Amino acid sequence: MEVIGAQLALFRINAGLTQRGLGERSTASEETIASIEQGRRALMPHLATEFDQLLNTGGALATGVAKLPPKEKYPIWAEDFMAYERQALSLGWYENGVIPGLLQTEDYARATFRSKIPHLSEEKVEQSVTDRLERQQILHKTNPVTASFVISEATVLSNIGGREIMRGQISHLRQCAELTGVSVQVLPLKREHHAGLDGPFVLLETADHQHLAYTEAQRSSELTSDADEVSILAQKYGMLRMQALDAEETMGLLDRLLGER
């Protein structure tokens, strides 16, 4: 990634552009360009092609990205995903362990960070909570992202943080389901089979209509624009939406859970 970043910086300078200038001419922000050039963020294939055209590189960047070893092709840090998330036109999120970060209350988020092993310092916990709440602003913008969430029933039946925190979280989840452009569906535990057994994932459409997929494991994460991989997860997500409760049924379930708590 560092070599590709250095090449981008060289091509940009040779073209007589600052990072801000390139950002004004492309779909990438000045911050994103700086991160790529410093080797802190991978250059995604669609941006490589765009920069090649703007900087007249003869396709050098796209070719370089295509030749990278698999482990270096795509970002492995959640920060890269969040950068695209902030500018997304739409996203589809399947989660089976916890409530998706964009739908968490402050108390629930704090409880999840306090559950991490190795344990985080209170300062790190509070900073992580603040960062997570800031991410949620994409659901409240003047032109909010179109967001679909499918969550396992296990996430709303759990007791993360305790009874009162979970009651507040379920109430908040119901409020989020009424936001413009937001859909929340619960996947019942009683389903004999479903398409989400391989774990959580997020599908995302960028401002320039690039389709990406993000997955996480215990100690790693991957953001990919590979068409085959994105297509497979899109097929899974479509099936999950059919296997989940619809919006009205989900509201009814959340109301019943609130009554029980």
TrEMBL record:
InterPro entries per record: Cro/C1-type_HTH, DUF5753, Lambda_DNA-bd_dom_sf
UniProt protein name: XRE family transcriptional regulator
CDD domains: HTH_XRE
Gene Ontology molecular function, alphabetical: DNA binding
Domain spans labelled DUF5753: 79-256
Native source organism of the sequence: Streptomyces inhibens
